[in-house]
Every structure is written in structure tokens, then in C-alpha cells.
Amino acid sequence: MAKHAGRTAAARPAESAVIELRDVTRVHGDGPTAVHALRGISLTVQPGELVAVMGPSGSGKSTLLHLAGGLDHPTGGSVHVEGVELGALSRTELAALRRRSIGYVFQDLNLIPALTAVENVALPRELDGVRARMARREALSALAEVGVNDLADRFPDEMSGGQQQRVAIARAMVGPRRAVLADEPTGALDSHTGEEVLKVLRARCDAGAAGLLVTHEARHAAWADRVVFLRDGAMVDETGPAPTPDILLTGGTSS
Amino acid sequence: MSIKHGLLALLEREPMYGYQLKNEFEASTGSTWPLNIGQVYTTLSRLERDGLVEPAGEPDEDGRVIYRLTDAGHTELTGWFATPVAANDRPRDELAIKVSLALTTPGVDVHQVVQSQRTATIRHLQELTRLKADANEQNDTAWLLVLDAMIFRAEAEVRWLDHSETRLARSRSRRGEPAPTSVTEDTPAEVRR
To answer: Which positions 114-153 of B are in contact with A (Cβ < 8 Å)?
Structure first.
């Protein structure tokens, strides 16, 4: 699969998209009390692309992320990861694909307190059947990539929030995974640390990963190539592909 | 902010002629605020008229005049730095006025106005963020400060839009009106009074 340069958001054939949602609907319950969490969402994320989803709480953005990551099932439409339709997989196959292809960064970091940073990052690879020494090597390089390789032997409670979040991103991206899903990954971090986390995510996508980021912070969404807006489960607008930044230079002048 | 005070601040560093002022001005605002040389000369002659700058000697062989700050100019500059910028020095209320008029003008969908603005502002925020990502943490500090200011301002605008939408939804439910089914739907102007 050819890696394209990213930063172009034009629709591509399904084969090149890492994440693709086709006319996805999610209804909770049925009859008159049914709640339409998502109504006919179509969205693709290409390699090298970071897409942000914004919307008020209850707009369906977390549902969208869970569906894209195979953690929930659509009631209509289909979800494809690396060209594979998730709905066609058995439970075991789905679990394997989730581990192999998708990295998750959630608000709660879910680092295991009894494991060091490098052990936390190596864990999903060991679950994939990678030999311990190899998994450790991959984990160290994932930690180096997010700039915290010097913390490899520390336990989560010996790290700051920002450092833990970097470790969580390293864990999400360790090995050959190309899809990274992030739900408010900056959580309660201060604005500088939060920005560092976004930079790491941005760098991962520039290196070829496909990122889907859910956030209510405009400043964080702005790191994405494209921002889509959800409201009441429907996509109401999107920013479209990135323009060149000349617009800034024509700003008003006054004396 | 005025060009006037920008030029005074540059001349406080050292005397300069027009083109130097233009280049230094643009360098210190990271080229976000390009000046044309005409603006620089007009401003300089106004400053000279008001006694805030003066020529530092005869024109050189290319006819360029080097200007320097006078004592009055120095006082003016000190006062400028000591005075906080007042909110009404920035005529940025057009958006607030537009949204409140959208609410009371028949046939205008205020939610559409809010969403169009949000998309545009986020797009602007994306451009600023790209410039920030390209800037050098060590060498571009002045430029990064300017960028951060623009980023925080754009972010505040988005937060205000979010807040306005919540306020609109609340006032609608208090009046017992249903929520709009879709923001994008093309509703013709229903009631014209």
C-alpha cells in the first residue's frame, strides 16, 4: 500500500484508507425510546492524515470513535480498518485485528501500575505473540519516538501526567499499527503539556499513521488536517483539506 | 496597536531609515503584519511633525534619511508600554453583532451562522497551528508569542460560539420549541412579518 504525502483529504478508494466508516448508524434501544447516537456517518482517514472530530457532549463523537475502533458495533452501515470490514469478523478475529492494527489513547490512561513504562508498552506486542526480547526492543523505540526513552524503567506513579500520556501514546503506536484513536488525549493536562501530546500525535501521523482524534478543544483540533463537526449524531460541517497559509499574510493593517 | 508605536519601539533600539524600519517591523511580528514602504514614510513624517522623531543628520548619497527618537518620542513610547490595551481599541464586535442580529432577523438560521463561523475560525486556527509547528522553539520566540496570541484569540471565539449555541438551545427549550432536526437543512424563510 503506497503511503501518500498526507495533508490531502480528497476521497480515496477504500483500499488506501486505514479507517473508513460507510453510512454508519448507531441506535440504542428501539421503538419510541430509541436514541439515535449516530445518523449516517461516512468518514475516511488516510495514512498520514489526522482527522479531528468536534461536537458538544452527547453529539456522538465518542460513539464514533468506539465504532471506528471495533469496540462497539454499528446498527447500520459498515466500518473498515485496513480494508477489512469489522462486522464480517468473528469475535476472536476482531480482537486480533484490534490489537494488531489499532492503537487507543483514552482520557484515562489505563497504564498498568505494576508494570514499568517499557513493560506497559511491550505488553500488547507480547499479547500478539512477539517474543519478549523483540517486544522490548519495539517498546524502547516507541518510547524514544515520543521522547521518553529515559523513563523506560519507571513505574506510572513515578511519572508526571504528561509523561504518562506519552507512554500511553507509545503503547498505542508500538509495532506495525497504523491506526491511532484518541479520545480527549490531553485530559486534565496543562496547556503546554497538552500541546506536547498533540505534537507527538501529529508527528506519528506525519510518519504515516492514520489518526482519529475526538476533542472539544478547538486549539487541539487545530493540529488536525481536517476537522469534522458532529451535532445530534449527524455530521453538520467540516473544514475540508488544508489550504496554504498565505491567508495570514494578508491580514488587515491600520495606522 | 498602531504602526506609530511599533516604529517608535524600533527606533528606541537604534536610529534607522525607512526600509530598515519596514524590515525590522516585519521581522518582529513574524511577517504577520506586512507594511508597505509608503505607510512607513507617511507615519514617519507624522511622527516628525509631532516632534516624536527627528532626522539624525543630512540624507546620505542615496537620499536616505536616518531617523532617531526624540525625548518626547521616548516618553510617548514609555507611556504606550505602560498602558494596557483597552478592549474597545479593537473593533472585533462585528461577529457578536452579526449573531445577535441573526437571531432576530426573520428567515435567518442563527445556527447556520454560528456553524459557518466556527468552521471558518477553526480553519484559521489550523493555519496558525501549522505555522507554529514549523517555527523553531529556540529562535522564533517573538514570532511564537504573536502566534500564540492569535491562537488564543481564535480559540476564545470558538468557545464563545459554543457558549452561544448552548444559550440558544436553553432559551428555545424554555419557550417549549423543538430543537432543529438538522443544522444543514435548507429551511426556506417561513415567517416574514
So the answer is: 115-116, 118-119, 121-131, 133, 151-152
- For residue B68, being part of any structural domain is answered with yes
8 Å CB contact of B4 and A247: no
The rounded Cα B110 to chain-centroid distance in angstroms is 25
Compare A20 and B139 and report the one with higher pLDDT. Answer: A20
Same-domain pairing of B35 and B73: yes
When the pLDDT of each residue in chain B is averaged and rounded to a whole number, the result is 81
Q: How many angstroms separate the CA atoms of A184 and A203, rounded?
A: 17
Q: What is the ipTM of this complex?
A: 0.72
Q: In this predicted structure, which of A4-18, B33-47, B73-87 has the lowest mean pLDDT? A: A4-18
CA distance B156 to A177: 36
CATH number of A17-239: 3.40.50.300
Q: What residues in A contact B160, CB-CB < 8 Å?
A: none
Say what the alpha-carbon torsion angle A228, A230, A234, A239 is, to the nearest 10 degrees: -20
Per residue in B6-30, pLDDT (tens digit) is 899 889 888 999 999 998 888 776 6
Q: Under an 8 Å CB criterion, which residues of A touch B?
A: 54, 56, 199, 202, 216-219, 221-225, 227, 229, 231-232, 234, 236-240, 242-243, 245, 247-249, 251, 253-255
Query: Looking at the 3D structure of chain B, how many domains does it have?
Result: 2
What is the structure's pLDDT at B53?
95
Of the candidates B34, B35, B158, which has its C-beta nearest A218's C-beta?
Answer: B158
Same domain? For B102 and B161 the reply is: yes
Write the CATH number for B51.
1.10.10.10
Does a structural domain hold residue B158?
Answer: yes
Q: Are residues B12 and B71 in the same domain?
A: yes
Q: Locate the domains of chain A by residue range.
A: 17-239
Verify that B96 and B77 share a domain, yes or no.
no
Residue A228 pLDDT exceeds 90:
yes
Contacts of A223 in chain B (CB under 8 A): 126, 129, 133
A148 Cα distance to chain centroid: 20
Distance of CA A58 to CAs A35, A218, B39, Å? 11, 17, 51
Q: What does the buried/exposed string (b/e) look like for B16-36 if buried means 16 or more CB atoms within 10 Å of the residue's CB?
A: bbbebbbebbeebbbebbebe
pLDDT band for B88, please (50, 70, 90 cuts). low
pLDDT at A137 over 90: yes
- Are B12 and B62 part of one and the same domain? yes
Give the domain extent around B162: 89-174
Beta-sheet pairing, A102-105 with A84-85: unpaired
Task: Grade residue B171 by pLDDT with cuts at 50, 70 and 90.
Answer: confident
Whether the per-residue pLDDT at A254 is higher than 70: the answer is no
